[in-house]
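User: Let's play a game. I give you a shape written as tokens, and you guess the letters that built it. Ready? Here's round one.
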């Protein structure tokens, strides 16, 4: 017999996800499920690289438990190099800024638990990834407040901020922050620098947390039309060296294989650092995140703003 809490959660889940569950159980050959996208074109190259470099670099020490909270020293150093190389932040990322965890769901669960009390809300641009509700609503009793921005206005800082302000003003709960997704899922568009700047300023003015899910940051295709200034992905350091709000960026790096992920969180506020668990030790191979390492250099792009080409 399940607990009352489990029965309540199961009922919520079955109702909330009845459509995908129904699709999953369908035996109709005419149905094409577009809910999940996978890149099969690059799989042969990915598989070859994984086998080659796991054999070359994997050692007995990688089978041990992690040597410290939040990730091993080697992993955190490699991640900081990876982030600084590909994203050129104005304020360099240091190993001490990063905590890794055993999966994006666990990271989001813990993060929302630490940012929101039961009944609090997070602003999320609609439509959004359905599993956000599992971390927020099911696990933590928080609420997701949809922010509706007309698609043709998603590149307008004024329109986007106005939409967030309107949603916050109409919310019937205490709004604690923004759960941001860039590139957006499911739209796929990349948010312009000016829009991110405006949202960060709004968070600072309204004393809100800013949580950014960037799992698809290196999974875009084609050239970006507008010039991107290195380090311009957030407002200048002059504006945000000592923010009144706590800004947290969730960095869930997708390495072009759905089953090969490493989940980390870049924390610009130290109050929640110790709440996160260690990453599983098999992912603690430092070479995998070096800019000249096998996976990024050979299967990815030196410059993430340029289109991917096989080597």
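Assistant: Ready! My guess for every position:
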């Amino acid at each position: 017999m399940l607990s009352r809490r489990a029965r309540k959660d199961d009922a919520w889940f079955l109702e909330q996800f009845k459509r995908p569950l129904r699709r999953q159980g369908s035996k109709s050959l005419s149905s094409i499920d577009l809910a999940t996208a996978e890149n099969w074109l690059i799989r042969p190259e990915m598989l070859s690289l994984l086998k080659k470099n796991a054999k070359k670099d994997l050692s007995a020490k990688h089978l041990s438990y992690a040597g410290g909270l939040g990730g091993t020293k080697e992993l955190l150093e490699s991640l900081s190099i990876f982030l600084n190389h590909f994203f050129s932040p104005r304020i360099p990322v240091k190993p001490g800024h990063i905590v890794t965890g055993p999966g994006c769901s666990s990271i989001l669960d813990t993060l929302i638990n630490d940012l929101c009390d039961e009944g609090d809300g997070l602003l999320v641009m609609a439509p959004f990834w359905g599993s956000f509700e599992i971390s927020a609503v099911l696990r933590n009793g928080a609420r997701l407040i949809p922010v509706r921005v007309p698609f043709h206005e998603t590149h307008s800082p004024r329109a986007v901020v106005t939409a967030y302000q309107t949603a916050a003003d109409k919310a019937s709960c205490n709004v604690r922050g923004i759960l941001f997704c860039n590139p957006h899922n499911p739209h796929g568009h990349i948010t312009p620098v000016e829009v991110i700047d405006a949202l960060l300023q709004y968070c600072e003015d309204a004393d809100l947390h800013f949580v950014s899910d960037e799992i698809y940051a290196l999974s875009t295709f084609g050239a970006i039309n507008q010039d991107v200034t290195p380090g311009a992905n957030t407002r200048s350091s002059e504006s945000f060296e000592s923010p009144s709000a706590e800004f947290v960026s969730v960095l869930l790096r997708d390495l072009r294989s759905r089953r090969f992920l490493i989940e980390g969180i870049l924390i610009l506020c130290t109050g929640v650092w110790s709440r996160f668990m260690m990453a599983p030790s098999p992912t603690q191979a430092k070479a995998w995140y070096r800019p000249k390492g096998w996976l990024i250099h050979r299967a990815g792009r030196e410059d993430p703003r340029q289109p991917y080409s096989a080597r």
